[in-house]
Amino acid sequence: MSTTSPSFSDVFDTEVVGRWAAPGRVNLIGEHTDYNDGFVLPLAIDRSTTITVGRRDDRLLRVASTFESGVHEASLDALDPASMDGWSAYVFGIAWALREKLPEVAGDAGTAADLSAAFGLDILVESDVPVGAGLSSSAAIECAVAVALADLWSLEVTRPFLASVGQYSENHAVGAPTGIMDQSASLLGRADSAVFLDCRSLDAEVIDLGFEKAGLELLVVDTRVEHAHATGGYVDRRASCERGAAALGVSSLRDLDVDDLPRAQEVLDDETFRRVRHVITENQRVLDTVRTLRLEGPGAIGALLDASHVSMRDDFEISVPELDLAVSTAQANGAVGARMTGGGFGGAAIALVPTAARDGIASAVLAAFAAAGYTEPTIFVVHAADGAHRL
Ligand code: GAF
């Protein structure tokens, strides 16, 4: 029996006023550096969440999706993170976070300080960003909703502000203590480019990747080992970084560089030292990657990608055997460089590959997973895409 996804009019009876899309992301390099005020270099990808929106006459937000049956409902007058759960928290959380954060920018360009003039909406969510793969399916929903609400409610706010709204929602409505990288990539991404973000100043620069000109492609290996950031390892790693910074007398690990490593080794226990070393060296690798992309092109960044993976595997200890196998197999079969991407503990690896070697590398990874008895991974090419926009 074949099933078809519901259309907007199957679920809602309001008239459609617009559609918005926001992409997932791949992080080229700079992992677990964002919440340490450091540097990241993600790209928005050609996998996205699309929302179709109808205007309501009341102050209700009603949301449905093509991936789960049922309609979730919340009143704009009673938005409360404590009563948000499941995937709809990614939608309601944005409205709540906007309400909380608007006072920070009220008055700038005539921005309203509250949501008193906002109206209700019906929202249908669809997405081709794989869930749990470390490609920011949640940020894609948040950012599609954020740009739609800003457009529809005539909020004169900037994209960096909307990224901070997305992060605030993720932290307080969803309950994951994540940084600002994913929402920034989804909102600020550009075709064929990466976003070089300083997570302290929030200065962002678009960096040309030049993959096509160099005959390269970016392959994603989704190991299908699912991860979550609201619990366990992610929370624990963040706490280690904060402990390390406090013990070294700085407000964040951004204030340290490789020259501080000998002192860090003296002061910290071995595990905390290795966590700190990952962040310090990863920040340097982001800066080196940006410089190398500019001066030599993408064919020269392989060693930095490889070193990033080793650091995440051995120092930050966020890799899993499936990610290590994807990375080592890609490297052994001709990838320029490879690393796990995203928060870790599952999810996806990326490999920068010559187009001519792409299919051979994909086959080798599939064969290696089969030989190891792992679940078959999903392997696909991604291209750097534009950030969230109205369709
Ligand atoms: C997840 C988080 F959401 C990001 O903020 C970032 O910390 C990343 O893991 C690790 O670099 O995607």
What do these coordinates show?
This protein is of the alpha+beta class and 391 residues long. The chain has a domain at 8-206: Ribosomal Protein S5, domain 2. It is built from eleven helices and twelve strands. Strands 1, 2, 3, 4, 5, 6, 7 and 12 form an eight-stranded mixed beta sheet that branches. A four-stranded antiparallel beta sheet has the order 9-10-8-11. The two termini are 32 Å apart. The structure holds 2-deoxy-2-fluoro-alpha-D-galactopyranose (GAF). Residues 27, 31-32, 34-35, 178-179, 181-182, 229, 342-343 line the site of 2-deoxy-2-fluoro-alpha-D-galactopyranose (GAF). It is an enzyme of class 2 (transferase). Residues 7-54 form the Galactokinase N-terminal domain. Belongs to the GHMP kinase family. GalK subfamily.
What CATH first level of one domain would be assigned?
Alpha Beta
Number-wise, the strands total 12
* Helix/strand class: alpha+beta
Largest sheet: 8 strands, mixed
Given as residue ranges, the uncertain stretches (5+ residues, pLDDT < 50) are none
Write out the distinct hetero groups bound to the structure.
Answer: 2-deoxy-2-fluoro-alpha-D-galactopyranose
Question: On the 0-100 scale, what is the average pLDDT?
Answer: 95
Q: DSSP strand (E) fraction?
A: 15-25%
Shape: globular
Residue share in helix:
25-40%
Count of helical regions: 11
In CATH terms, what is the architecture of one domain? 2-Layer Sandwich
Distance from first to last alpha carbon: 32 Å
Order of helices and strands: HEEEEHEHHHEEEHHHHHEEHEE
